Amino acid sequence: MTKKKVVVGMSGGVDSSVAAYILKEQGYDVIGVTMQIWQDDALETTENGCCGISAVDDARRVAGQLGIPYYVMNFKQEFKENVIDYFTKEYTLGRTPNPCIACNRYVKWESLLKRSLDIGADYIATGHYARIEQLENGRFAIRNSVTAKKDQTYALYNLTQEQLSHTLMPIGDYNKEEIREIARREGLMVAHKPDSMEICFVPDNDYAGYIQKNTGYVSKPGNFVDVNGNVIGTHKGIIHYTVGQRKGLGLSMGHPVFVVSVKPDTNEVVIGSNDDVFNKTLYANNLNFMSVEKIEGVVRAKGKIRYSHDGAMCNIRMIDEDTIECVFDEPQRAITPGQALVLYDGEYVLGGGTII
User: Fold this and answer.
1) Which of 245, 309, 328, 344 gives a 20 to 30 Å CA spacing to 216?
2) What does the pLDDT look like over 240-270, one tens digit per residue?
3) C-alpha–C-alpha distance, residues 97 and 105, integer Å
4) Angle, nearest 10°, between helix axes 207-215 and 85-92?
């Protein structure tokens, strides 16, 4: 029986490097691939995550250590259309996008998987802290990794059944310390490499500056208004603000104030107290169900509204073909349009959508 062939997306970090090692040990025919997604020469020199040229150098050296073939595949166009263009458009519409979710769904999986299957691979694999299981109902679902601290299931809710059926996530059964220990034990040169935290194509975290520099979008000043519509100041342009934000507002109100909502139609940013930032109900669309094909009636689930959110119990129901209503038991802070609502049934991803 021939060994199954798997393409491992290698970012030059310790997680994807150990994923490749584990799969090779398990007997797979492993090919290492780094996705070239940077858009210009400036990014090639950054030390940043899966984008910089250093990622290619590190991944190539690890592949050499493991004795596996290694390639760089160009996904510049796919990344620009599905991640950068989406990211900038969402901000100009007053929403706060999650580019990593878009990258996972449309670049790492849709594009890389297609190209990998075209060259005869059976699977792709990544270094995500998550597990994939086929449930009794026949559907594939993502399950929480064994380590809550590094769990990355939130950013993977949007994967399709077809994609999941061709995906391996070998490090979901380990915690970070164990992964680093394997890398040390095997002498992998990235064993001590720090994790990347920021969005890869905005290394300085200045999203507004990036958008203005790269798209020609001009950020128009407008009014800060209170929750009753009274003008209380002037803002720099809506791309500078997100729901729940406190810092950088430049307002001296004598007490802490926060962004309650961003209104692109009137170019207003609504300001209120901390209490004004809490809500129990949200709506989401662009749905993707994972552990179930669809939901009927009212369903109990745990909902996460951002990557760092612990999740909270809620009731969900469909209100039309592609819109869900989610009512939390307790009010949640800073429910933000553009972010993902990810729903869990126990340890398994039930599905999710984009908060509207």
Assistant:
1) 245
2) 999 999 999 989 888 999 999 999 999 999 9
3) 14
4) 110
Phi, psi dihedrals of residue 82, rounded to the nearest 5°:
-90, -20
pLDDT of 51? 54
Tell me if 107 sits within 8 A of 35, measured CB to CB.
yes
**Low-confidence residues of the chain: pLDDT under 50:** 42-46, 48
CA distances to 97, 142, 298, 318, 349 from 301, in Å: 23, 15, 10, 13, 10
State the Cα–Cα distance between residues 231 and 226, nearest whole angstrom: 7
Model's pTM, two decimal places? 0.91
Q: Are 273 and 312 in contact (CB under 8 A)?
A: no
Nearest to 38 by CA among 125, 107, 131, 139: 107
Q: Mind telling me the catalytic residues? A: 103, 200
Per-residue 3-state assignment (H helix, E strand, C coil) for the chain: CCCCEEEEECCCCHHHHHHHHHHHHCCCEEEEEEEECCCCHHHHCCCCCCCCHHHHHHHHHHHHHHCCCEEEEECHHHHHHHHHHHHHHHHHCCCCCCHHHHHHHHHHHHHHHHHHHHCCCCEEECCCCEEEEECCCCCEEEEECCCHHHCCHHHHCCCCHHHHHCEECHHHHCCHHHHHHHHHHCCCCCCCCCCCCCCCCCCCCCHHHHHHHHHCCCCCCEEEEECCCCEEEEECCHHHCCCCCCCCCCCCCCCCCEEEEEECCCCEEEEECHHHHEEEEEEEEEEEECCCCCCCCCEEEEEECCCCCCCEEEEEEEEECCEEEEEEEEEEECCCCCCEEEEEECCEEEEEEEEC
pLDDT at residue number 247: 92
Structure tokens at 98: 């999650």
Q: How many CB atoms lie within 10 A of CB 331?
A: 13
Contact 257, 273 (CB under 8 A): yes
Q: Is the dihedral of CA 151, 157, 159, 160 positive or negative?
A: positive
Query: Residue 17 corresponds to which tokens in the numbers above?
Result: 């490097």
Nearest CA among 32, 17, 3, 189 for reference residue 124: 32
